[in-house]
Write a structure and sequence with these properties.
By secondary structure, the chain is of the alpha+beta class. It folds into 3 domains: 137 residues, Periplasmic binding protein-like II (D-Maltodextrin-Binding Protein, domain 2), CATH 3.40.190.10; 105 residues, Alpha-Beta Complex (Dipeptide-binding Protein, domain 1); 210 residues, Dipeptide-binding Protein, Domain 3 (Dipeptide-binding Protein, domain 3, Roll). 29% of the residues lie in helices and 23% in strands. It is globular.
């Protein structure tokens, strides 16, 4: 009996060690959280160069700007403790917070702030990395604790741009931000294993409320393995999984529900035939049944949209555009015939394979477009290929993706359709839109500028610049031993707010 008991204990101990090894945790290491993410950080670890929403949501934990957003969408002090605007609106005076340190232990100086802003603005010999910062005329160090930013033109949205991840303050001395990120945030970068994980740990000298959980791992997960690894315990939480996947989890998880605050659409390359014809684009809109997409691919969850704006940007959002193109197969066929495509045409939808919701959306679109004679083929590509070929190279016909707002401004969503914008990956071009956008950049009156934004949204809808679908519902399962998950009106993950339940 004693031998049998020892044998059982030995087997149990072996299983415990094995399962502990599978979870990626050290024995007794309770102060760790493993977050599953669907993509690696392929673009850059330098915040000024990061283009992918998935990269910015991770780097949000490492970097901070002069200001930062909170969960209510308000701007709060960060590296700067306060700021003032001159009466003429051209000069922003930032008073730096005392005692802020970079993750390498060096103090943040006015020189670092000046360097970071000028680098982002393209004033240090590089290209302009933040389009809105091209409006910066000069950055002046007034004292060790004051930096003045002088603009070429008034821009009441400038503080919001200064609060984005892309406008983070980095050390002037660090010439390797692409591979060795050093910021001021609550977590500091430790290492990255491509296609495997990004390791961070809490920053003991953080100026604000310190992160409760010491060790943080962002683990690269394929869509297929996300649920299995959640149930198996090798990851503790992940964002943006489907309602169908939630049903597979069972007990052991708290499910947080919100919205992704992005614009999911079938984005069309407006320079490529036949999508250079507005009638073709409108036909595709009439052929698309948004509610059917939500029902078949998202269990009915999601908020239909009609232009490049999502509902949480309340004063800019136009619900009346949601029904701009009611489903009308016959009208779609007539538009195609008028455009010279009476029998339809063949097309390719390029989709990043790691984003299962976009793949699922594309599959429903294929069947819907087939009804009007459009034969669509899905080309699933790796994330880095999508970034290089579709987003940067603009070598595509159409793609299903979600576009987020990099800052708390309507401009962050609408500015990319200005004809000469660097991030105008759909090659949309309309002189009337350009004129409205230029006017919005100069307008100080908030009501007037809001109206200009709405005119721009209406133009995008009338031109059927893209086939607008939804702001996707966001489900975040989290192991019940943790609490404190917080949604933001931006595409970020704030791990510092998460705590282990007592």
């Amino acid at each position: 009996m004693r031998k049998r008991l020892l044998l059982i204990l030995t087997v149990l101990l072996t299983l415990t060690i094995a399962l502990g090894g599978c979870s990626g945790r050290k024995a007794g290491d309770s102060s760790k959280i493993v977050v599953g993410i669907p993509q690696d950080l392929e673009d850059s670890l330098d915040p000024h160069k990061a283009t992918a929403a998935g990269t910015r949501e991770v780097l949000f934990n490492v970097y901070e700007g002069l200001l930062k957003p909170d969960e209510n969408g308000d701007l709060i002090p960060a590296v700067a403790k306060e700021y003032e605007v001159s009466d003429d609106g051209f000069t922003y005076k930032f008073i730096l917070r005392e005692g802020v340190k970079f993750h390498d232990g060096t103090p943040v100086t006015a020189e670092d702030v000046k360097y970071s802003l000028e680098k982002s603005a393209g004033m240090t010999g590089e290209e302009t990395l933040i389009a809105a910062f091209s409006n910066i005329k000069e950055v002046n160090i007034v004292s060790d604790s004051e930096v003045d930013v002088v603009l070429k033109e008034n821009d009441v949205d400038f503080p919001a741009y200064a609060a984005s991840v892309n406008a983070s303050i980095i050390p002037k001395a660090n010439t390797a931000s692409d591979t060795n990120p050093i910021g001021t945030g609550p977590y500091k970068y430790v290492s990255r294993s491509p296609q495997e994980n990004i390791i961070m740990e809490s920053f003991d000298d953080y100026w604000g409320e310190k992160a409760s959980i010491k060790n943080l791992e962002f683990k690269i997960e394929s869509g297929d393995s996300m649920i299995m690894d959640l149930k198996g315990g090798s990851i503790d939480m992940c964002a943006r999984i489907s309602a169908t996947q939630i049903a597979q989890l069972g007990d052991g998880f708290d499910i947080h529900e919100g919205s992704m605050n992005l614009v999911q659409a079938l984005y069309l390359n407006n320079k490529v035939k036949p999508f250079d014809d507005v009638r073709v684009r409108q036909a595709m809109c009439y052929a698309t049944d948004t509610q059917e997409i939500l029902d078949l691919a998202f269990e009915g969850y999601g908020s239909p949209i009609g232009s490049q704006m999502f509902p949480s940007f309340g004063k800019y959002y136009m619900p009346e555009l949601e029904n701009k193109y009611p489903v009308d197969v016959e009208k779609a066929k007539k538009l195609l015939a008028d455009a010279g495509y009476p029998d339809g045409f063949d097309m390719t939808i390029t989709v990043p394979s790691n984003y299962i919701p976009h793949v699922d959306t594309a599959q429903v679109l294929v069947e819907q477009l087939k009804k009007v004679g459009i034969k669509a083929t899905i080309d699933q590509v790796e994330w880095n290929t999508w970034l290089s070929d579709v987003y940067t190279g603009r070598k595509f016909e159409s793609t299903v993706i979600g576009v987020d707002a990099s800052s708390l401004t309507a401009d962050a969503l609408l500015g990319r359709f200005y004809s000469s914008a660097d991030n105008n990956f759909t090659n949309y071009s309309n002189p009337e839109y350009d004129k409205l956008y230029e006017e919005s950049r100069k307008t100080l009156d908030d009501d007037k500028r809001t109206e200009l934004y709405k005119q721009m949204e209406t133009l995008l809808a009338e031109d059927a610049a893209n086939v607008y679908i939804q702001d996707m519902a966001e489900f975040v399962p989290m192991n019940k031993k943790f609490e404190g998950y917080t949604f933001y009106p931006l595409y970020v993950q704030d791990i510092a707010k998460i705590k282990i339940k007592e």
